Amino acid sequence: MRATERRRRPPAALLSCGVLLLAASVAAEEGKPRSIGSHKGVACLAVSPDGKTIASGGWDSTIRVFDVATAKETGKLEGHKDAVLSLAFSPDGKTLTSASSDRTARVWDLASRKQTFSLEGHKGGVASVAFSPDGKKIATGSDDAIARLWDPSSGKETKKLEGHRRNVNALAFSPDSKLLVTGSGDETVQVWDIETGKSTRKLEGHEGRVTSVAVSSDGSLVASGCTDQKVRLWSLASGEAKGTIDEQGAINSLAFSPSGAFLACGTMKDAGLWDAATLKEAKRFDGTNVRAVAFFPDGKSLACATTDGSIRAFDVPEKPEKK
Fold it and tell me: What pLDDT shows up at residue 128?
């Protein structure tokens, strides 16, 4: 994902623009773009587990909810006092969590569109949030260099993960919910044992802030993106370096496809789709400063948020081409 230590507000010219949502499954014609919605100053997005809903968070401190089929905004969640920087749906799709520069994370009931909990305790802005695949934990990462774990049923903090020296910008759980991967402004990635709250390994090699992390669906790979314009892949089990992708801009966001065949990268320039096995580029999606990328659950579509106001849709190949 993205050289100041904190995530800075984009220039006003960018804030006047909207949201790019690349969603091939809802394109009016095959390969043609279609609008899902717009959100001035968008900073993040998330796709629901059933693929029917997209939520976006912005520098205006709001969360917008869009119906994918109709491309209509169906709600606005308000309560944060500063930029919303990260979003995550619960596995059952009934709950949305949000992270904000106002030093809180919030839990929202999507049926009522009401806040159920405010997760408070961080001493700095909350830059990242993740829901565990088993639905039993929420993780938050903050500018205070700490990651925290919370019980989503009560809103209570259960663990504090300390070890990074600077901002925790990104989070991702392993598929079995036993490990948490964090990316930091201290240029490292750490892997944490959820049960003990201890770091089991530190992955080093980046030369800049680590802004995004992702874990493949089979739990074999970790991807980390950095302001050094590189994406590094690692074995989650051993920490062994598996390869490097040279992107065309600082990395804002990463996402593995549900099958694990592809890795999508949102950058300060545009978005790229890469073969996760060979690390060869498969496709590029136009768009200036792609802030966030997320696959739809069928793996055939990619949703992205950008600050340039363009709205497009692109197909994702079924599988990487053999060359």
Answer: 98
pLDDT single digits (tens) 38-80: 888 899 999 999 999 999 999 999 999 998 889 889 999 999 9
Domains of the chain by residue range: 12-27+127-306
What is the end-to-end Cα distance of the chain in Å, rounded?
A: 29
**pLDDT reported for residue 138:** 98
Contacts with 3 (C-beta within 8 Å, 6 or more apart), sequence order: 208, 209, 227
> pLDDT tens digit string along 222-275?
999 999 999 999 999 999 999 999 999 999 999 999 999 999 999 999 999 999
Q: Output the CATH code of domain 12-27+127-306.
A: 2.130.10.10
The dihedrals phi and psi of 227, each to the nearest 5 degrees, come to -70, -10
CA distance 106 to 120: 9
SS3 state at 14:
helix
The residues near 105 (Cβ < 8 Å, ≥ 6 apart) are 97, 98, 99, 118, 119, 122, 126, 129, 138, 140, 150
Distance from chain centroid for Cα 56: 11
Measured CA to CA, the distance from residue 72 to residue 55 in angstroms comes to 12
| CA 57/CA 143 separation, integer angstroms | 18
Residues 6+ apart with CB under 8 A from 168: 127, 128, 141, 142, 143, 145, 146, 147, 182, 183, 184
